Amino acid sequence: MRARTLDRNDAVPLWQQLQRELISRLGAGEFEQRFPGELELTQEYGVSRQTVRQALGQLRRDGLIVAGRGRQPRVAQPREIRQPMGALYSLFASVEAAGLAQRSVVRKLDVRADGVVATRLKLEGSAPLVYLERIRMADDQPLAFDRVWLPADLAQPIVDTDFTHTGLYQELASRAGLYLDHGQEEIHAVVPTPAERAHLGCTAETAALSINRLSQSRGRLVEWRHTLVRGDRFALTAEFTAKTGYRLVQPEAR
Description:
- The protein contains 8 helices and 10 strands.
- It has 2 domains: about 15-75, Arc Repressor Mutant, subunit A, CATH 1.10.10; about 80-235, Chorismate lyase-like (Chorismate lyase, 3-Layer(aba) Sandwich), CATH 3.40.1410.
- Helix 1 (about 15-25) packs across helix 3 (about 50-60).
- It starts with 13 loop residues before the first helix and ends in a 17-residue tail after the last strand.
- Helices cover about 25% and strands about 30% of the residues.
- It is of the alpha+beta class.
- The strands form 3 sheets. It has a 6-stranded antiparallel beta sheet. A two-stranded antiparallel ribbon has the order 1-2. A two-stranded parallel sheet has the order 3-10.
């Protein structure tokens, strides 16, 4: 076992240095077969057992490892959310259907004007829009950065809603009598920006799915949504047969 060293002259505590070192090694795939135990890490880095326990405790809270009392730590395997294509779906419902605890961190909920989005919704540029911005959590780990715009003349009743643990479509139906019945999505694989990675709590090596959704209700455009979902925690699935295959649609000019 090769000895590794931490910088004892650094202002960063040793346990945080060790935590960062282990995250780097996790990202490099060093622990695919097994994760080292406390004693092994103590000997490898020449630090106290308390330092190792602090570092492992933070990794456990961050959902990167699983370590029960008296048991060997192991790399956590995130449960992937699988969403069938071809139907209107709610991320809230998809998370709960996967058996994960759903929660949202609401960053913004207000009424504002946005000329670009208003044009997409075929409204006047100055038309007021309800804007909702959330970080969607699954088992207390970031899953998606979600932004939604809705015409205020329809969605005003949801402005005072607590979206910590409820779905947008559920609240639109119960508070505003608004039911989405048609829509289109464009999905692209992207590399998140540093700011987006901060929202998603992921590393630079993690890809994401960028999902743009334009939804209707009774023939009227009522929702423009942009969602950035972690590619390591979410998958879109589809079924096809010899008679009902995929139909390629030319994307609209941007």
